[in-house]
Write a structure and sequence with these properties.
alpha/beta; two-stranded antiparallel sheet; 7 helices; Epimerase_deHydtase; Lipid_A_modif_metabolic_enz; NAD(P)-bd_dom_sf; NAD-dependent epimerase/dehydratase domain-containing protein
Length: 268
Amino acid sequence: MAGLCDDHPMRIALIGGKGGVGSSLVEAWRAEHELTVLDRGAAPLPGVRDVVGEADDPAALTAALEGAEAVVHLAAQLPNGSEAEQLPGTAAAIGVNVGSVLLAMRLSRRLGLRSFVHISSLDVFARYGEVPIPAGALPDATALYGLSKRLAEQALRLSLDGPAPTAEEGPLTITSLRLAFPTTAEAWPRWITPLRQEQAEPVLHTLEDGTPISSLHPEDLAAAVMAALRRERGGAYEAIAVTAAAHSIADDSAARLLGWHPRHVLGD
């Protein structure tokens, strides 16, 4: 399937587009691209078409996706509290972090979209941010958030194993972007939690040996997501690590498949 041209303004739907990552993408793109934002938040965003609704509502998703060429799925139930405290919300977390992703992907295929970007996380690796992740390592997280992101990736990958289950579903390029510590321009290189109720001073993460891990600057984030939306290299499905700290994981997929390199790195 032909890719989306680099100089072509795009019609992009952002599912869950009023959180931290989504807001930074809107800020970066709304002057050049035609954006539709689906979010439960009712406060309007200037310069975009607003659809108020839930990420797992087929009618709201259809309204957001109609007319779009590409979609970024950002909606997620984030980790809040200890694993024990999160346990009662397991089914709800899987519903948002896995179910709404698969639903949005299948509706995108039915509506003829060309590119689907799933915002995943390097939390799919249980010890990411503690020790360097070696080349070829497989996701191994069992904590709820990381596990739910693993499951979403697997659902997307498995959905391409055979023909689409309905004749109405067409081809779609699907990319999971495993982000590491996306932050604001003001906080960079430190990370600031997207959970308002847990808001604190920005922190600079370090590996167990004390090596600092730079957070992901919003300019680099927007460039990576746009490159994923226009991706032509690789297979129909790819999972790609996106980090400003190359020493934290031995994975060159962003450079190899997207031509992406972070511009904001510690030491510059």
